[in-house]
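Notes from the 1:1 (GR / supervisor)

We went over the backlog. Supervisor wanted to see one worked example end to end before approving the batch request, so GR pasted a single chain during the call. The sequence is below; no edits were made to it. Supervisor asked that the structure be written out right there so they could see what the output format looks like.
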Amino acid sequence: MLIPFAFSNKLQKLVDVDEVESGLACNCVCPSCNMLLQARKGDKNEHHFSHHEAALDVCAYSYWVSIRDMAKQIILEAKFISINLTKTLNLHTIPRKLGSSLVEIFGTEKKNNGFDLEITTSIGILNVYFLTPEEHRQKYRLADDYFTHALVLEIDLQRIQNDNRCSKKEQLKKLIL
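Structure output shown during the call:
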């Protein structure tokens, strides 16, 4: 799969391929293996990043790592997140006074507890887990204590479409926020 996001050494954050210069002038690295990337912006194919040199090991997860990392960055920069409370399974853990599904974000932390992020919100602490097809990530979700946390917010990143009319970053923002 094509790599939609890379870490910009210049900006010190993840960027969409359309936010940087073409080729090696983008000054970006792969979020998965940290190898040098080049921005490919031709007329025939979808714009994307590619490894400048062949990796010794295939960088198999570079697509999903870049998607997941950009999703984290979007949440870290957000002030609100929209949650469909009618589809929430553990509705009893959410305060009944909520009339809106717009939840204010007070703070975020990157925790190493198996979840991607921990968000302090107006409805409590949300443990965020991004669903991706990466097999090595599935073991935590299948663990017995996964749903023992007060609030778990799963966001299915696999719903990202190959839609050239809208950038992957914009698609992620719509999906997440």
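Supervisor's comment: Strands lie at 5-8, 13-16, 23-29, 36-40, 48-51, 80-82, 102-109, 117-121, 124-131, 152-156.
Batch request approved.
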